[in-house]
Design brief:
ten-stranded mixed beta sheet, alpha/beta, D-Maltodextrin-Binding Protein, domain 2, 4 domains
Length: 868
């Protein structure tokens, strides 16, 4: 027994060190950041935030929509679980409920948001079928639907798992005693479920409160705390101290959740034996429960039908003919295979390492006589990990491990996922191991077997089904998670969910659905394998050995994939870019056609996301080359001195710094959907001032200047043309007309005008021209106030080993990429460049003051002052 305790003590020490370094230390650093102000500590960040009406409003909105969605989710979960366990509906319907209710777990939440748009939006599938839009999907309604779909699987699993262990014989007892139907329902079904229903509500509330993917798609102007955190950390001007404060404030529901869940545990009902009885006949009960559950399943199936069908449509909603073009475009992507491989590596690595850690933790709490404090500490860690939002863990990891060997590696992603999803697999293992005979180890020790041998030969085989379920849980969640990864993923470790976020930047929603289907099919395949292997557990012993081999095969596959990736040869040059798709293609062509093919990795970000990474990581940035808004590069250089002096000639028309040279000039313009304007009988505007007319209310979408530099071009045009006083009046009226269509990304307005959700958007000029050439009912309107522009430049990050290659690539991009770039962005930047008049904008303008972060902050304050 002494030896056993030494081994378990060793496991406990390893686990304690792991959670200390990768859970408590990052959160402690995050807490420190929330007080940090230069070289001193202060409460000012908390005071500013708490007394900020906007944060209080976002916090209140999050509580409201999360609470209502959690209530709806819990009621629906109870209805479906009740239908399975307390009614005599057909077994086919019960099987359908079990299958479809858990289906949303297999997709990233950001996909639900886009699916809601294409289902319930103005041009959505259901709206087309009914010839009317049932409700406005942006804001509260869209969030409510998205959160319910997202949280329903976990609530259903919790409720159904408890309900099937309720002893149904009390239904007969209650009936014999003459209880009314209501009292019988309360005593035999509802009362024993109250602790579980409360736990399901808390879990659904917390998942909704911390989710980022759904608000990013359909949040509209309904501010929630998750998007507030994202904007503070990765907005156009990141504020890491305020972001840390928001992250710490998001932990408040976590603390409340832990207290409530621990309190509710004492009210769990336990039965000595579960009786198997034939349920009483009640056709009315069966009918209504069957209809209710069927409607829920139809709602889920409708959203999934959109995800499945839209990739096969040529151009929804304008050309609904069958096409495989979206699949061929997506599958032809240069880095899709590597991104998919990365996702498998992360998922398999997380499954293997996470299962090992969770199982080891369960051994400590259930199979040892270590002090109660040690065992309770593991339970406490489980509760804490279960309630800390993924975004908070991601930010904490960003602060804690920037500049370390873990930065931008698979290991940091795996560790993050392992911590984030630790709780559920740990509880699975704990429940199973707690039911096994406690004398196994003692008997084996008396027979001369070592503790590890006993665990391998006796304990593990008796819990093999649970181990496979743990592997499945870790794998699937690692495939669909995004909230934490957006802060720590690198170019060489990009996964499918971050690829989806990248495609959102380009408004490639059809390709997003294709990747979502790839994730769905992968997860279904893994679940199928796990189910097949698990079902063999009751067969002959030799077949039981096969189960272990399958599990070992999965782990071995993960090891092989790890070895394959980590053992690759020469490190490529990493390029970070906020450029649009056309510029990225020009960069790739320039490099591939001039001897640099397969020597680089090109990773795209939104402007705010890349800006946040540059400011947070500084010289520790993974990238060797960046292309980014020129004003951002200047600010980063002033703060971090992170760019090398360019060693090649840059014959620009204007003077630039010696560490960067311009790549593109982006011009703002109005984009109109001619079909929508014609349908609504609205005239095509010729100026930005016309957008203040109330007749355009609800028909305009623009990007938020706090999240996108594209929105800055609109503000520049109004201020330069009309001055501050008149400009404020015009912008206030425009924002009133915009309503819920103020977007947190530059691609948002383009998405809405393409899909017909609005008739007018403000976006980059070249994108409208590209859509018009495709034959879409999209046109570009150059506003008479002017096509204001900002430049994006290329710079080389200071590094010891790859700077010569990176510098050569930067020169190649500048000298050989400009020809293609000039076609899409028709603004001359270098000596000798000429632009064809038919592609040039009508009213090219440049703001009278030099663009800088300080000027952007001024204009952001002006913009905020115009919001009602």
């Amino acid at each position: 027994m002494h030896k056993k305790q030494l081994e378990l003590k060793g496991i406990y020490v390893v686990l304690a060190a792991l959670f200390l370094v990768f859970l408590f230390m990052p959160v402690a650093i995050l807490l420190y950041k929330s007080f940090e102000s230069g070289t001193s500590l202060t409460l000012q960040h908390y005071r500013d935030l708490i007394f900020s009406g906007k944060f209080v409003n976002a916090f209140g909105n999050s509580f409201t929509v999360s609470g209502i969605s959690a209530l709806v989710t819990t009621l629906l979960a109870f209805l479906m679980a009740y239908t399975i366990n307390y009614t005599n509906v057909s077994q086919r319907l019960k099987k359908g409920i079990r299958s479809i209710a858990t289906l949303p777990m297999l997709l990233p939440t950001i996909t639900y948001g886009f699916a809601i748009i294409y289902t319930f939006g103005k041009q959505g599938l259901l709206s087309k079928l009914l010839h009317v839009q049932l409700f406005d999907i942006y804001g509260f309604s869209g969030l409510l639907i998205g959160y319910v779909i997202y949280t329903l699987p976990i609530a259903f699993l919790l409720v159904n798992n408890t309900m099937k262990f309720i002893d149904k014989k009390f239904i007969i007892v209650s009936k014999i005693m003459g209880d009314s139907g209501g009292k019988r329902f309360w005593m035999t079904a509802l009362s024993p479920m109250i602790p579980t229903l409360a736990a399901a509500f808390i879990q659904a509330f917390f998942l909704s409160f911390t989710d980022f993917g759904i608000p990013a798609a359909v949040g509209g102007e309904y501010a929630v705390v998750a998007t507030t955190l994202y904007n503070e950390m990765l907005g156009s001007i990141p504020n890491f101290s305020n972001g840390a404060v928001v992250a710490m404030m998001m932990l408040l529901p976590s603390i409340i959740s832990i207290i409530l869940l621990n309190y509710l545990e004492r009210y769990n009902v336990r039965y000595n034996r579960i009786s198997v009885i034939e349920l009483p006949e009640n056709r009315k009960r069966d009918l209504w429960c069957g209809i209710g559950s069927g409607l829920v399943l139809c709602g889920i199936a409708l959203v999934f039908a959109v995800i499945i069908l839209l990739p096969f449509v040529k151009e929804w909603p304008y050309d609904i003919s069958f096409s495989l073009q979206h699949f061929t475009d997506t599958l032809a992507s240069a880095n899709l295979l590597s991104v998919y491989r990365n996702s498998l590596i992360v998922a398999l690595g997380t499954a293997a390492a996470g299962t090992l850690v969770a199982y080891g933790s369960a051994l400590v709490t259930t199979r040892s006589t270590l002090p109660v404090l040690c065992r309770k500490s593991i339970d406490a860690i489980s509760s804490i990990a279960n309630t800390i939002p993924g975004m908070v863990i991601g930010i904490a990891f960003l602060f804690a491990f920037s500049g370390t060997p873990l930065q931008s590696t698979f290991w940091i992603i795996i560790l993050c996922n392992m911590i984030h999803f630790f709780s559920t697999p740990y509880v699975m293992a704990k429940n199973t191991l707690g039911k096994l005979n406690t004398s196994y180890e003692t008997t084996a020790m008396l027979m001369g077997d070592s503790w590890f041998k006993t665990i391998r030969r006796v304990v593990v085989p008796n819990s093999k089904s649970t181990i496979l379920e743990m592997l499945s849980y870790y794998f699937i969640n690692s495939m669909v998670t995004i909230s934490a990864l957006i802060f720590i993923v690198g170019a060489k470790t990009a996964v499918l969910t971050t690829k989806i976020k990248e495609l959102q930047h380009f408004a490639k929603f059809d390709q997003i659905f294709v990747l979502s289907l790839l994730i769905l099919l992968t997860n279904l395949l893994v679940k199928g394998i796990i189910l097949f292997v698990t079902q063999k557990k009751d067969e002959k012993k030799e077949k039981g050995v096969r189960v272990k081999k399958y599990a070992l095969g999965i782990l071995a596959g993960g090891v092989v994939l790890f070895t394959f990736v980590f053992g690759q040869g020469k490190e490529p040059v990493v390029i970070y870019s906020n450029a649009d798709e056309e510029a990225l293609i020009a960069i790739q062509h320039a490099l591939d056609e001039n001897g640099f093919q397969d020597q680089y990795v090109l990773q795209s970000f939104g402007t705010s996301e890349l800006g946040g990474k540059i400011m947070a990581e500084g010289k520790n940035l993974e990238a060797d080359i960046i292309t980014m808004s020129s004003y951002y590069i200047d600010s980063a250089q002033q703060k971090n001195d992170m760019f090398d002096k360019l060693t090649f000639p840059t014959p620009t028309l204007k003077t630039y710094s010696d560490y960067d040279t311009p790549l593109t000039a982006l011009e703002g313009a109005m984009i109109v959907n001619t079909s929508v304007l014609k349908e609504k009988q609205l005239p095509v505007p010729s100026s930005l001032k016309e957008l203040a007319n109330p007749k355009y209310k609800g028909m305009i979408s623009i990007p938020d200047i706090k999240a996108s530099s594209t929105g800055w071009l609109l503000v520049q045009a109004l201020l330069d043309t009309y001055g501050e006083e008149d400009g404020k009046e015009i912008l206030t009226a425009i924002l009133d007309n915009v309503g819920p269509h103020l977007e947190s990304s530059g691609s948002g307005p383009l998405k809405k005008v393409r899909s017909g959700e609005v008739g007018i958007a403000f976006r980059l000029r070249h994108q409208a021209l590209a859509d018009k050439e495709k034959g879409l009912p999209i046109d570009c309107i150059d506003p008479i106030e002017g096509n204001y522009s900002l430049t994006e430049s290329i710079a080389v990050v200071k590094k010891e080993n790859v700077n010569k290659t990176a510098m050569a690539m930067a020169r190649c991009i500048m000298e050989n990429g400009r020809r293609d770039i000039l076609y899409t962005y028709p603004t001359a930047l270098y000596e000798g460049e000429q632009v064809e008049k038919k592609y040039a904008s009508k009213y090219p303008r440049v703001f009278k003051r030099a663009l800088s972060v300080e000027l952007l902050e001024e204009h952001q304050a002006f913009f905020e002052g115009c919001r009602k």
